[in-house]
Amino acid sequence: MQTNIHVGRLVKEFELQTVGEKQDIKMVRFGLAVQRYLSKKARTDFIYYVAFGKTAEMLYQYANKKGAPIEVQFNIQSEMYETTEGQSQYRATNVVTSYMPWTTKQSEKEIAKNDGIVDEYESTLQGLNGLTDEDLEIR
């Protein structure tokens, strides 16, 4: 049995796809920027995952925001296949089994700022910057 967990930030927004013979299986492919553990220099690995079914639908609906922090639990599935030239190839795929968004109010603000969006709270604070204590006094 294997248990793998990564925490990182979503590299970019992704699309919900349908696959299978009957086009009835939902699938998403996405990447996370994961910081290396105990590295002397700040290093980031870009790791890619795939999710199917309800997990894919939920990821698409609730965690599809560039830069959003997310924790994924996944299994590494390996396979051998032959290319059209007859050569054997090996491939490993990270298949997500569950996930948890790590979004907080602060990280939502950071993500919004990165996208050039200023929420109502921030714009209200900016409007109050020029006021004095007397202007803000309750009467």
Question: Could you explain how this protein is built, in words?
Answer:
It is a single chain. A hairpin with an 8-residue loop joins strand 3 and strand 4 (44-52). The chain starts with a strand and ends with a helix. The chain is 24% helix and 42% strand. The protein is built from 4 helices and 6 strands; from the N terminus they run E-E-E-E-H-E-E-H-H-H. Strands 1, 2, 3, 4, 5 and 6 form a 6-stranded antiparallel beta sheet that branches. It is an alpha+beta fold.
Span of the ends, CA to CA: 66 Å
Main sheet makeup: 6 strands, antiparallel
Oligomer: single chain
Order of helices and strands: EEEEHEEHHH
Radius of gyration: 21 Å
Number of helices: 4
Could you say which structural class the secondary elements and strand pairing correspond to? Answer: alpha+beta
Unreliable sequence segments: 116-129, 135-139
Number of strands: 6
**Integer average pLDDT:** 81
Shape from CA axes?
globular
Tell me the helix content.
Answer: 10-25%
Strand content: 35-45%
Give the topology.
Layout: E1 4-10, E2 17-19, E3 25-35, E4 44-52, H1 53-62, E5 69-82, E6 88-101, H2 105-114, H3 120-128, H4 133-136
Antiparallel strand pairs: 1-3, 1-5, 2-3, 3-4, 5-6
Give a quick summary of the entry.
This protein is of the alpha+beta class and 139 residues long. It has helices at residues 53-62, 105-114, 120-128, 133-136, and strands spanning 4-10, 17-19, 25-35, 44-52, 69-82, 88-101.
Any key phrases for this structure?
139 residues; alpha+beta; 6-stranded antiparallel sheet; 24% helix
